[in-house]
Amino acid sequence: MNILYILDLIGTAAFAASGAWVGVRKQMDLFGVLVLGMVTAVGGGTLRDLLLGDIPPFSLKDETYIWIAVGISLFVFINRTRFKAFETPLLYFDAIGLGTFVVIGTTKALDFQLGWLGAVLMGVMTGTAGGVFRDVLANDVPLILRREIYASACVAGGGLLVLLEVVDTDRTLAALLAAGTVIAIRLLAIHYDWALPKS
Amino acid sequence: MNILYILDLIGTAAFAASGAWVGVRKQMDLFGVLVLGMVTAVGGGTLRDLLLGDIPPFSLKDETYIWIAVGISLFVFINRTRFKAFETPLLYFDAIGLGTFVVIGTTKALDFQLGWLGAVLMGVMTGTAGGVFRDVLANDVPLILRREIYASACVAGGGLLVLLEVVDTDRTLAALLAAGTVIAIRLLAIHYDWALPKS
Amino acid sequence: MNILYILDLIGTAAFAASGAWVGVRKQMDLFGVLVLGMVTAVGGGTLRDLLLGDIPPFSLKDETYIWIAVGISLFVFINRTRFKAFETPLLYFDAIGLGTFVVIGTTKALDFQLGWLGAVLMGVMTGTAGGVFRDVLANDVPLILRREIYASACVAGGGLLVLLEVVDTDRTLAALLAAGTVIAIRLLAIHYDWALPKS
């Protein structure tokens, strides 16, 4: 589980950066940038833990997550005039985070005896709800409800993980395959500019 | 309790349709429409369960609710070019759902030993918070904070239910009277275009 | 604890008035004004209790808080044409509430064995999340993410309280010093129009 923890922290950092960067672009002050970074980084997993009843949530049990989110947000704020250069590499780290968060969320929901639809939902929520909170606080319609393949990658990864669990696949292997699926779909979607059908 | 469960599922379907329809009108993609449908349908009861400490919430314990929400949202998305014709009948089903949700929420809060103000609040929240989440995600000021008699119908129904409980009325009778009150006020308000005083 | 309870109720009233007043200015109807008043008054502490696992939250255990919020919101609504005169005195009561809420939140988090970063966060959240909910419902970017010294006063007060706890200061004294710090910084910030660096 050590590598999963490291990937989790990388994802936390990437999500915090994306949140803080929205705060900067919305001309928030330092506190606003910190809040957006933290909420984006730990919001999804925190909501999942509230719904599963694992309280206090992971983000209050292991303070590493919040320290990383605070540190990265501060870094983004300080380097805000040249952060644009980080936008593209950030997309790759964000994809890694997304895959990791979905796997962690889905697995945890299965451990808490949720049904398979609920488990997939918890995985998707772990990966996406932080970004939704970020956009609501920034007074935008959440990006994820409007654009390209982002949540769909989470649904595919979470669904695959549940399927592999049902057929009793080794958990480490299943986690790797599911996270890989999310990351691959996400990167392909960025590269080929894929999108879901729109209303 | 069988009829209450059936009414609950009807309400869930109606609320999901109203949420999905907002997603369509906001030009969200398929995922956005599904999220708005689900959140509108189960958001109020889920928040109630978090506050009462009944975790995991009903929506993760019995997956029927989410399957219905997903199915109906999909239906709305697929039929989006001709869904306008459903708007008026939807108002009636929405009123049935509202009455049912208020009764279920208030009753549950009483079972959890809340005081009567808290119980009415939980009933109103069960009926209305899903729509508030829907509007926040769609980046609108929640409809319910601005317009006609909607929440007021919930307050009346929840208040009546608490009153009937205090005077020890049979629970089935009380539920019927309270739900009927919500539905009647709501339909009269639509018909006569009633509204609360505005700021 | 008696004086802390009284200060808590004063803060609840001030926060409810600020929420209701936003509802009035956004032309909400009576129900909207009541919801904004309640959410602003008890939203922060309620979220804190959900995260700490103290459920049902304080606002549903002791109905005094919600009765005060409802009463004050009603008062603001009825007197909406002349409430502008109360805006300046309200700032002082709001500062008292802020200091009290931060102290209560931080102390409670320490009692629940949170780490010190978590405890400060819970204190800040108790003081500020209600206002964030208010602004999200009113479809604004939360004031607190953009403007002057408000959250920073909470961070300072919460941090001081944790520090005093670590060096084993008497709790009543620590609470007084921390609340005083929040209130003093807040009032000085209003007076001298201080602000954090902006993006």
Write the SSE topology:
Three copies of one chain form a homotrimer.
Chain A: H1 2-25, H2 30-52, H3 58-61, H4 64-78, H5 87-111, H6 116-137, H7 151-166, H8 171-192
Short description:
Chain A is mostly helical and 199 residues long. Helices cover 76% and strands 0% of the residues of chain A.
What does this structure look like?
Three copies of one chain form a homotrimer. With about 200 residues, the first copy, chain A, is an all-alpha fold. Chain A has one domain (about 1-190). Helices cover about 75% and strands about 0% of the residues of chain A. The first copy, chain A, has eight helices and no strands. The first copy, chain A, has helices at about 1-25, 30-50, 60, 65-80, 85-110, 115-135, 150-165, 170-190. In chain A, helix 1 packs parallel to helix 4, helix 1 packs across helix 5 and helix 7 (about 150-165) packs antiparallel against helix 8 (about 170-190). The longest helix of chain A is centred in the middle third of the chain and has 25 residues, at about 85-110. The relative contact order of chain A is 0.14. The mean pLDDT of chain A is about 95.
